[in-house]
Design a protein that fits this description.
This protein is an alpha+beta fold. Helix content is 47%, strand content 20%. The chain is built from three helices and four strands; from the N terminus they run H-E-E-E-E-H-H. The longest helix is centred in the last third of the chain and has 26 residues. The radius of gyration is 15 Å and the shape is globular.
Amino acid sequence: MKREELNEQEKLAIACFEKVLKNHRIDSHFFSFGVYAEQKICLEKNQEGIYVTYLADDGVHRCEEYFFSIDAVLKDFMGKYADTATETQEMFQEYQSYYAMHANKYEKQEQGFSR
């Protein structure tokens, strides 16, 4: 799964996730979406549609985890860099707000109601 192979929902989710990271001064270069990248937390989607995350280290996938939704993956990623569970929840709520706002705008454009 390369970034260009993501569906629109996944692309939007990752863009909103990156915006939250930027707001919290967390470098999004710690993550790789779709390809193995040394010393990063990588996200791939297997043929069954399950999201797989792992730490890429010396050519090995370490600490593999499996998720059924992009939201669950991104919340887990936020938790890896937040200082507390409360901060993770605040970041995730911020993400959900961005996502809802942009998804609503996209839906209106699809229906021909763009501003």
